[in-house]
Amino acid sequence: MNRGMSLVSHLARFGRALRERGVAVSLSDEADGLAALTLVDLGDREEVRLALRAALKIRPRDAAVFEELFAQLWNSDREPAVRQTNPRIDLPGSVPRALPSARPGSGAESVLPTGEEPGYSPDAVLRRKPFDALSAADLQGMERLLARLALRLATRPSRRRVPTRGRGDPDLRRSFRQAVAQGGEFLSLARRTRPIEKPRLLVLADTSGSMDPHTRFLLTFVLSLHRVAGRCEVFAFNTALVRLTPFLRPGRIDLVLERLAARVPDWSGGTRIGECLGEFVEDWLDELVDGRTSVIILSDGLDRGDLQPLAGAMRALRARARRVLWLNPLAGDPRYEPTARAMAAALPYVDRLLPAHNLESLERLLPFLTA
User: Which one-letter DSSP state was computed for residue 303?
Assistant: First the structure.
């Protein structure tokens, strides 16, 4: 089924369900909703919800009905069974379930007849699949999604607002100041907008043996970040520290990764996190890290080495950087606790400890890079 037509019919049934529950949604509102969905990331459930609520002009008294029906339609908490007869709606990151068709005044919730329940997006499956469970057939699709995720970072508006000469929100305070300077006349209205803020990044990637099942995908993500960030420095560490930035040239991902592996001694070997981070602090900290730099450490925190250099290096990084984010594949397990010696020593100097076991977990990183 054509993806655009699937989205149109899906939204039309959603609008019909709202009207059957007494919510005044017109065909014009549905057209606005469709236009709004073209401007947001369909893989972000919260963006879709806010876009539809605004475009469909949901009034406060109808908010509860909207939230109820939206939760049923865009439910991402479970993976429904997919029958071959079901039409598919390829909305990356959304998990359509059943659209209610309650009759006016019944208050009952019923699902669509057999054969009309939306299917499950292949992209959504990949987003939730652990990196260490991916097959060779999944690699190309995963690399495409990782590149798309990095592109979201390149087009994400900053939270701060800056003056602009073009379109933007009215800046009344600056407008009044200009009017005072012009004898009290409002000759023009000052405006401000949210700029696209490209973050400055430093990535320290653990390439030891325990990280091997995740390294390819995490480095693919790092390569994608390198292409869109304002400045992105990349280092690999295991038993030694290696600066990878000079070797990050455009090209096929698999060839780039092979080139990087050849440059890194003891790839998939042991690890000395403390000594490597201490070497970075001594040789590179002043040159590459400032108050606008976000430091990302990709590691499972498994290290039997001396903890004193690790604590000292993390303290120095935290004192100089904008923030320190630690991405740990093991944190994807809900039973995980950061009790490993190295992880426990580093934790007091980490702003956020985040999971990094699948694409969905990496998506949660983006807001912290532009905040």
Answer: -
